[in-house]
C-alpha cells in the first residue's frame, strides 16, 4: 500500500457549509478523540468475533455440505472480502469522516444533480446494515444462551416469548454498558480482541484433545462434501459461505469511529485491512478442529434453536463441565462483540442524524458528555422493535444475519463502484492507497458484493419451509421502500 503526503487531506472531509441541501459541517468534531490504531484494530477484531461470527450461523455451513464448505469457504471469503477491505481503506483515507460511505458517495458523484439522492440512499442502506447487524448479534446472543441452557436442562425448552425476553434484556444491558463506560470502550475493544483469540485457542485444544465421536482423516476433514443436505445439489457449497461472510461483513463499521482517532486517514485504513489476515488466521484456527471432529451432519441439523456450535462442542468433548466452560467463553466473546458493534451502530446513527437524514434528527444528533447517548438509545429501541419480528423463530436469526450482510455489502458497493467508474481519480490522492492493483481490487469487490446480494437472499434448504425460508430480501426491500417514501416525502426537499 502507498502512503504519500497530501497537504489538503486533513480538510478533505470538511464541508464549509451547513446550509439546506449540503452535508453538515463536521470541521469541529463533537466526540472524544480516544482511539489509536491498536484500539481501532481491536474493535475490528472484536466485531469480527470469530467464535461467535463463525459459530453463531454455523448451521449454514452444515446445510452447505459440511467440511469443504467450512474450510475452503473461509479461504474464499477471506480472499474476496480482503479486496473489499482494502477498497474501503482507500476511501476512508481519502475522506476520513464518521459519515463514511454516504459522504464518500456524495463526494464521488460528479453530477451535482444526483449527489444528494446518492448520499441519502447510501446513508440509509448503511444505517439499515448497522442496525440489523447489531440486531443479529444480540439476537444470536439470546439464541446461544437458551441453546446452552437447553444442552444442560433438556427438560426445559424456551418458548418464543422467553427467547424474546432474553433478547430484550441483552439489548438493555448493552445500552447501559455502552452509555456508562464510554471512556473505557477502547480498552474493552482491545481486551475483546485478546479474549477472542484465547477462546479460539481453547476450542482448538479442547476439541482436538477430546474428539469423543472420533477424528476424521485429513482428506475427509478438509474435503468432505455432502450435497444432499440442503437440496441445492452442487450449489450447496455457496450456501455455506454465510458464516465467514457474516464474520467479516462488519469490518467497515469501524469507519464510524473515524472522528475519535487522532490520525484517521492512516489509522482507520490500516485497521480495516489488517483485520482480514488476522481474522482469517483466527477463523482457520477455529474451524479446523471442528472439521476434523465434526459429528454426523444429520445429527447437527436437530440441534436446539438451530444453534450448531453448542451441540458440536457438547458432543465432541463429551464433558458437561468442559463444554460449559467453552460455551461461557464464547458467550463472553459475543458480549464483547455486542458492545463494539452497538457502539459503532450508535456512531453511524449519530452521523446520519447530524446530517439531518433521520426523522427528529435534532434529537438523535445531540451528545451528552461527548458521546451520542440519544443515538445509542434509538439503536436500542430499533433493535427491540425489529426483534419482535417472528417472535424468536429459528428462521429469524438467519434473516437478521443475511439482511445485515446484504445491507452492509450494498453500502460498500455504491462508493466503490462510483470510484471505479470515474477512474479512481479521487482515491489516488489519498495518503493510503493501493496504487496499480487498486482497479483489480475494486472490480473484484463489485463482483463479489453483487453475488452476495443474490446468494444471501436464498433459502438455506429446499424445499422451502417456515424453518428454512430466508426473509432477508423481504426485510431489506421493505426497508428500502420506507426509505424511498421518506425521501420523496421529506428528504428530497431538505
From TrEMBL:
Name of the protein this chain belongs to: Amino acid permease
Disordered: annotated segments: 1-26
Biased composition regions of type Polar residues, renumbered to the chain: 8-26
Transmembrane spans: 37-54, 66-88, 123-152, 164-181, 193-211, 231-254, 275-295, 326-352, 373-393, 399-422, 434-456, 468-490
Top-level taxonomy: Eukaryota, Fungi, Dikarya, Ascomycota, Pezizomycotina
InterPro entries recorded: AA/rel_permease1
Compartments, as annotated in UniProt: Membrane
GO molecular function, one term: transmembrane transporter activity
One GO location term (cellular component): membrane
Keyword Glycosyltransferase appears in the UniProt entry: no
Domain of life: Eukaryota
Membrane topology: Multi-pass membrane protein
The keyword Transport is assigned to this record: yes
Sorted UniProt keywords: Membrane, Transmembrane, Transmembrane helix, Transport
